[in-house]
Amino acid sequence: MGGPATLDKVHDFLHNLFSDSDLMRLPIQPLAAKFIARRRTPQIQDQYNQIGGGSPILHWTEKQGEMMEKILDQISPETAPHKHYVAFRYVDPLTADTVKQMKEDGIKRAVVFTQYPQYSCSTTGSSLNELYRCLKKSDPENDIKWSVIDRWNTHPGFVKAISQKIKAKLQEYPSAERDHVVLLFSAHSLPMSIVNRGDPYPAEVAATVDHVIRHLKVRNPHRLVWQSQVGPSAWLGPQTGDAIKKYGEMGKKNLLLVPIAFTSDHIETLFELDIEYGKEAHESGVTGYKRSESLNDDPTFVQAMADIVKGHLDAGQITSPLMALRCPACNNDKCAEQKEFFASQKL
Ligand SMILES: C=CC1=C(C)c2cc3[nH]c(cc4nc(cc5[nH]c(cc1n2)c(C)c5CCC(=O)O)C(CCC(=O)O)=C4C)c(C)c3C=C
Ligand SMILES: [Fe+2]
Ligand SMILES: [Fe+2]
């Protein structure tokens, strides 16, 4: 997805985001996107200002890419040298520019590695649709051969990395209270219209939570809650903010928030979880409100990234078997074309 690295990029980020009909459908979308982006910019700039003046997502993605390619060169010498490229959906480096750069660099074989662990048509699906459109323009002869890592929500290395972050944060609670801390796994929500199309994301997020809980081998109570709703339509709940408030009112003093669908820090963790909900938690009597650290450049996580790519290359797969299956009520024909394109790659 990407995020605006500086405040002057917030408007264009929002404009590109609200223009994306794979993410959301708006009436007279080009006009509506212009209007909403302009109206929303000051509020979102203020939020980015409070987290240091921009999204750190490019910084973390570059760092993860650099660390991952070094590990890959060691564990998969037969496919070395490895080189990472970043393709964001709504800000620089945009997918179109990255594809042009790869063509200029003479790349012949590429792995699309979504950085969303769980698949949603609105996120990974949108990014793959955009990549497909860019390839039709910039690589019509299909010079670059592609395969796709479309989801990795239960990969053991990913599960281990999240679990380690939770364990480390649990240590900060007094030992007498540690076993009773409520683990609140928080993921970005989805509009119910997308959930009801049969989008796989909610079930894949729940599967990640289940694997983490089994890996942790703790008896703490836990719940999965959903954050970052935008606009008036119905979204998948319960909302993270409401859950924090209710648990506070129920006398739960210790809540440990765990971001479960993001791999690095950005506005959803640094502003929403830390600042906005942190304040609400305090007001609701939650004295032990903490958040487990994002994965960022965590060595266990970056090792997992490299293992995921190596496993993918060794298996010789083009996509996961799940990629071929469209949502039962999918109404986006672009999804079908894109899926056929990637499935037809000959390595
Ligand atoms: C798993 C991750 C994400 C899903 C699923 C997702 C769905 C989704 N998002 C919007 C609307 C917005 N998202 C915005 C920011 C944003 N979203 C994600 C992740 C997911 N979104 C991230 C990581 C970010 C932050 C980027 C950064 O700071 O680096 C925004 C912009 C902020 C705002 O205006 O509140 C919007 C808008 C929809 C409609 C949607 C599902 C259809
Ligand atoms: Fe979002
Ligand atoms: Fe779909």
TrEMBL record:
InterPro entries: Ferrochelatase, Ferrochelatase_AS, Ferrochelatase_C, Ferrochelatase_N
E.C. code: 4.98.1.1
CDD domains (alphabetical): Ferrochelatase_C (cd00419), Ferrochelatase_N (cd03411)
One GO process term, biological-process aspect: heme biosynthetic process
Annotated GO CC locations: mitochondrial inner membrane
KW GTP-binding (keyword) present: no
Domain of life: Eukaryota
Localization (cell): Mitochondrion inner membrane
Keywords: Heme biosynthesis, Iron, Lyase, Membrane, Mitochondrion, Mitochondrion inner membrane, Porphyrin biosynthesis, Transit peptide
Pfam families membership: Ferrochelatase (PF00762)
UniProt topology in membrane: Peripheral membrane protein
GO molecular function, one term: ferrochelatase activity
Catalysed reaction equations from the record: heme b + 2 H(+) = protoporphyrin IX + Fe(2+)
Nucleotide-binding is among the record's keywords: no
Pathway: Porphyrin-containing compound metabolism; protoheme biosynthesis; protoheme from protoporphyrin-IX: step 1/1
NCBIfam families found in the cross-reference section: hemH
Function field: Catalyzes the ferrous insertion into protoporphyrin IX.
HAMAP family membership: Ferrochelatase
PANTHER family named among the record's database cross-references: FERROCHELATASE (PTHR11108), FERROCHELATASE, MITOCHONDRIAL (PTHR11108:SF1)
Family (UniProt): Belongs to the ferrochelatase family.
Protein name: Ferrochelatase
